[in-house]
Design a protein that fits this description.
elongated
Chain lengths: ~120, ~120
DNA sequence: CTAACATATGAATGTTTGTTCATATGTCGA
DNA sequence: TCGACATATGAACAAACATTCATATGTTAG
């Protein structure tokens, strides 16, 4: 195998093919970046708590602020992030704006994560 | 309903019971915090890429650094985080340290997230 | 024991991110 | 139209984080 591309450690032969396999199966850079972005959104306890509330009911911003004991502004900012990520949707009714889950995918992902935590 | 606890907006009646239901079904604070912590770990593209490599093969630190085109130090730091979260495990063999997935839960969670991204 | 290699780790740095405050936008009743 | 209420948003600040550099630890061959 003369000079294959340079490796850092000297244990070529073991991984030579494994590395090729890896490169073949890796999704492309952008997709992996997007994936990380999605998880990043779930990676904040305020947003997780918001989503858990929305599991049970469609609620307005002020209800969320009170339930989670946080400033209305903080909740709004987080809802914006969740909405941009298409994880929640909103509906205006008079002065209030009601938020709910965009789809059940959210629930599935969170439940999966919860299973891991509960071990 | 006289004076139930004060609400921010005036639309009590609609949510009064919904709010009670929500509070009943919410996991406790600490569990939600832990859940967010788990997702936070998946919320970085370097770590995601590391995990994707480990989907295919058990590799050493220098292989990872080369595959991902990053400094060995950066990889080590991230591996430490992944290990503390029990998402990967390591095995020393001579001078090298080989990393692999701790269990298949990791794969499930990431696949679930990927499904969401791929829509 | 020493030199060379593989990995780990602490400190420093630049960036990202969540919350707050102040204020703007939007809605409705009077 | 005006005032009160609900929500949204920009700027500012602090905390959290990823990467880098320098260096320490651990391992093997000679």
């Amino acid at each position: 195998m003369a000079e294959k591309q340079q490796e850092c450690c000297e244990v070529f032969q073991i991984h030579e093919e494994a590395v090729q396999e890896v490169l073949k199966h890796m999704p492309d850079e952008n997709k992996l970046y997007d994936l990380a972005e999605v998880f990043k959104i779930f990676g904040d306890s305020t947003r997780i708590r918001i989503l858990y509330v929305l599991f049970e009911a469609e609620v307005c911003v002020c209800d969320l602020a009170q339930l989670l004991n946080m400033k209305q502004s903080a909740i709004s900012h987080q809802l914006k992030i969740l909405k941009q990520a298409k994880l929640v949707k909103s509906r205006r009714e008079g002065k209030s704006v009601f938020y709910s889950l965009a789809d059940d995918h959210v629930r599935t992902i969170i439940n999966q994560g919860m299973e891991h935590v509960e071990e």
